[in-house]
Amino acid sequence: MGIFAARATKRLIEADLAPTGNWLKLPSDWPAVDRADLLTLAALHTLTQIDVEDATSTWAAAGGKVNTGEVAGKSLRSLLRVEGGVEGGCRFVLGAVDPVGGFTGDWSLQATPEAAGVRLAVPSCRTREDALVNADLFAWVRSAHAQTLSDGPPLRLTDGPPRLDGLVESQALRAPTLFHDASPFADDYVMPLPSAFRDGVRIPVPATEREPLVTLLHACGLPVESGPGTDQGLCAVDLDGGRPGPAARLRLVGGLPGMDSDELVIELPQESELGRRRTFRATVCLLWRIADRGRVVCPRTVQTLVGYLEDCGVDRSDPDRQAVFRPTWNPDLPLGVVPLRPGTSLPVALCVRGHGDSLMDCLAAAQTWLVVRERTWTHGMRAASRRNNRVYSMRRPAFLTRDGNRLPYLRYAHTGVADVETVVLTSADKMWFWECVLRSSVGADGVRESVLLVDGLSQTDGLLGYGAELLRLLGAFARLVQSAEPAAGIRTITLEL
């Protein structure tokens, strides 16, 4: 069997040149997306057309060959990922996420543009008994992408921010069985919301520091309204993050006559558990920004805020804190997912025309509405060994870094442990599930054009990898841009599945 399987594998992974149609020539009224961006969007379209079905991959045996004895207890449902901007093109990778944030690939398919088309090649692969691992899925991806390159991806450009209604559904993950391995999205946990936040918040602050506090709130980067004498109080910060429905708000309310204190009031609407966690993280990040910037101008207010934030904090040095973890799902508990269904309009780029100096700040603020997920893993036969070997990690938004510099790439990545308000950095070799890149250029008419492009996606079981977090980022970013730069025009590019 070995020699025939080896020959079949060699034929299967031979490089080939796929022709492209004339879809790469977009109309002149399209925004600042270039040929490389279009090829990335084509790869994203191919990803959405593939059914990973019951394919499994192992995070054991990182070399070129997989032995059956090595995979027991070390397999998950396969994750298919598209990576944009790799060697001048795009790359498909199929593999498994290990418990501590590594990624072991079964194979990768590189799509590199050339003058006559796009070259499809295989930079790496694994075999089992000389046969390519998940060979049928590889053949499907390769064939489907060649068809996409010929026909072009079904893209649509619309005016305004993305329409997100109906894209996120409540759905339980498929539970592992004897015949089906666990999902790579399983074993996510969250910390319980602190009692100091759950039912709303009222924080007394000195009225003598009212003016600098109002200034800090206006400079916080979030939508702010002022209205003395109105129901908004002295100042109100919108904490909805672009979500529809009743909005959470932080209001600065003046004290009654004769009182020497005002109040910061955090109003929490009725919302889902996931929505409440988004509001909590955005609120904590906002209060820490105020505390960090206000140490000189309003020290007493900062002292009060720091005390409240410490009450909301978590002792992440506790080796047994997993005892209070709450699962994000179980077979009876649905969670917000983005299924890949025909007829879905999936936003993949936000195009901003106009002044764009604050867009990176908008991106940094938008990621504060994304949920931080806790992970834990251990090994060992005895309780003491398992306690000593326990490793904590997170899945959360993180900016890509290179040579110590933060790049305009935001990923939902597997990271080390950090406080929820911390802006986390990640390196290129760490596991991630989706990626957005922010770029700007000046058009021929002298007007700046910027694009927040989805540069990478992953999926398994017909679900986008943390797709609800990606859509929330796009919605929050659009909301913040509209607030910070009301004269800027926003258009959305969607993939029509």
- Class inferred from helices and paired strands: alpha+beta
Q: Which oligomeric state applies?
A: single chain
Give the beta-strand count: 28
Q: Beta-sheet strand percentage? A: 25-35%
Describe what you observe in this structure.
The protein is 25% helix and 33% strand. By secondary structure, it is of the alpha+beta class. The chain has three domains: 1-153, Alpha-D-Glucose-1,6-Bisphosphate, Chain A, domain 4; 155-189 and 327-497, no CATH class; 195-312, TATA-Binding Protein. It has a 15-stranded mixed β-sheet that branches. It has a five-stranded antiparallel β-sheet with strand order 13-17-16-15-14. A two-stranded antiparallel ribbon has the order 2-3. Helix 6 (273-293) runs antiparallel to helix 7. The longest helix is centred in the middle third of the chain and has 21 residues, at 273-293. The protein is globular and about 90 Å long. The model has no long low-confidence stretch (mean pLDDT 88).
Tag the structure with descriptive keywords.
497 residues; Alpha-D-Glucose-1,6-Bisphosphate, Chain A, domain 4; TATA-Binding Protein; 15-stranded mixed β-sheet; 5-stranded antiparallel β-sheet; 25% helix
Secondary structure topology:
Blueprint: H1 2-12, E1 16-18, H2 35-49, E2 56-58, E3 75-77, E4 79-86, E5 89-97, E6 103-114, E7 117-125, E8 127-128, E9 131-132, H3 135-151, E10 155-159, E11 169-171, E12 189-190, H4 195-198, E13 201-206, H5 210-218, E14 224-225, E15 235-238, E16 249-253, E17 261-267, H6 273-293, H7 299-312, E18 326-327, E19 335-337, E20 345-353, H8 359-366, E21 373-377, H9 383-388, E22 391-402, E23 405-415, E24 425-426, E25 432-442, E26 448-460, E27 463-464, H10 467-484, E28 489-496
Parallel strand pairs: 22-24
Antiparallel strand pairs: 1-7, 2-3, 4-5, 4-26, 5-6, 6-7, 8-9, 10-28, 11-19, 12-18, 13-17, 14-15, 15-16, 16-17, 20-26, 20-28, 21-22, 22-23, 23-25, 25-26, 26-27
Helix pairs in contact: 2-3, 6-7, 8-10
